Amino acid sequence: MADIAAKDVAALRKVTGAGMMDCKKALQETSGDMEAAKLWLREKGIAGADKRSSRDANQGAVDVVVEGNVGAIVELNCETDFVAKSDAFKQAVLKLARHVVENADADLGNQSFDGSTVDDTIKGMSGTLGEKIQLGRVVRFETPDGALDGYKHVQSERGVIGVLVEIGGVDAADPKVREVAHDVALHIANSAPRYTRREDVPSTEIDRERAVFEAQAREEGKPEQALAKVVEGKLNGFYKSVVLLEQPFVKDPKTTIGAHVASLGEAATVRRFARIKIGEE
Description:
The protein is α+β, with helices and mostly antiparallel strands and 281 residues long. The two termini are 43 Å apart. The chain contains eleven helices and ten strands. It has helices at residues 6-16, 20-29, 34-44, 49-52, 81-84, 87-102, 118-129, 175-191, 203-219, 227-242, 257-262; strands at residues 59-67, 70-78, 112-113, 116-117, 134-142, 147-155, 158-168, 248-249, 252-256, 269-277. The protein folds into three domains: 6-52, Ubiquitin-associated (UBA) domain (Helicase, Ruva Protein, domain 3), CATH 1.10.8; 59-196 and 248-277, Tetrahydropterin Synthase, Chain A; 202-242, GTP Cyclohydrolase I, Chain A, domain 1 (Orthogonal Bundle). It is elongated and about 80 Å long. 44% of the residues lie in helices and 24% in strands. The strands form four sheets. It has a three-stranded antiparallel sheet with strand order 1-2-5. A three-stranded antiparallel sheet has the order 6-7-10. Strands 3-4 form a two-stranded antiparallel ribbon. The relative contact order is 0.12.
């Protein structure tokens, strides 16, 4: 491999805007030929990527893939919804989600993908589409004995919300289980719970809410002897807003998600869920 001088790497970086390591690799691949290295970077879609690195990539798309006992959500970010809803961008997100389902390795960026690596493919997209493109959040669930389901909410011609949910204590092949799991996934997309059950809520958050509710009750002039009951009532309302199993089921508000899942049997339980929405942390 050619011995590349630092000044040549710096010169290539100056004219292409690519990263130092990418410039060094380009020169190594082309035996130090500056013009060939420029072309190599263009072909890889890397040239100009650093110039876009300071831009905001708060648009994008998500996709959800569930195959048997494995499911994945992948978020890919870009600068505009115009690019996010393009066929090339949506196909890339779908291929990445399928790739994550098939590959459990945590080092996603360096995995072989589409004839290159995940990182290099995304850099290539950035060069081709002319926007900052970056991999967003990635979630992968694998269950040994539960039922997985997913849901993708489409808006403006691309997936904007992705959900995965795992239900345990059930027969994954039972059509009723599949129906309920999908109901729960759809509900999560709509109602945005933050926790699965009450016990999952951090004590610091509960203490903060309790203090706020007590202050509100005093401001409303509630009698001292009634404060505890008022605060507990408000806390129950808080749990219903953030805890999945206590939320009213979006399709039937007279029942809760917990009761809907319990209809599958005493052992049925929501083990975990994930929800990713474009533009939200």
